[in-house]
Amino acid sequence: MKEIVEAARRKRCRFQLVEAKGPPAQDFHDALKTHPDAWNVLLLDSDAPVEGSLADLCRTKRIDPKHEASVFWMVQVMEAWFLADLSALRAFYGDRLQVGWNPKVEEIPKDDALATLKRLGREYHKTKHAPKLLASIDPALVRKAAPNCDRMFRAILAQL
Fold first, then answer.
1. CA of 121: how far to CAs of 32, 85, 102, 112, in Å?
2. Rounded to whole angstroms, how far apart are CA atoms 160 and 157?
3. 6-35: pLDDT as tens digits
């Protein structure tokens, strides 16, 4: 995200990350109404492999497909991004981390990604650990291992 924040700053754009307080899709729709002049972006877990179009995936999450260019997906789940950067996981959980590595993290089933993190030395807790892990992972590694992450970076940077 640092790359995006810095690009926004250079263009004198305000880039603001907002954590959903309710259902993310509803918060996105609310933001579209309350901030109609902003480019509102939504980042969601797909919860499953992406099959079909992104518009179809939007429909499954009750998002109007006309917003598909503003909706980005963590396939299949955010935690798969962590598995793209084993050195960050080792720094967080300790050197004794023993996990297999799949260079295509979007192919890791949601349950497997979550189970891998739960097996680690310290019990994984989404709200306590995810922000720290997200801040520590190398975006270049994640972009290489997760095409939908790369799509998000490219789209946001192009807008800036």
1. 41, 17, 20, 17
2. 5
3. 999 999 998 888 877 889 999 999 999 999
Can you say how many angstroms the Cα of residue 37 is from the centroid of all Cα atoms in its chain? 24
Cα three-residue angle 103-107-109, rounded to 5 degrees: 125
CA–CA gap between residue 73 and residue 53 (Å, rounded): 12
Residue matched to tokens 């979007």: 106
How many whole angstroms from its chain centre is CA 3? Answer: 15
pTM above 0.85? Answer: yes
Amino acid identity, residue 77? V
Is the Cβ–Cβ distance between 90 and 122 less than 8 Å? no
Write out the two tokens for 147: 């095409």
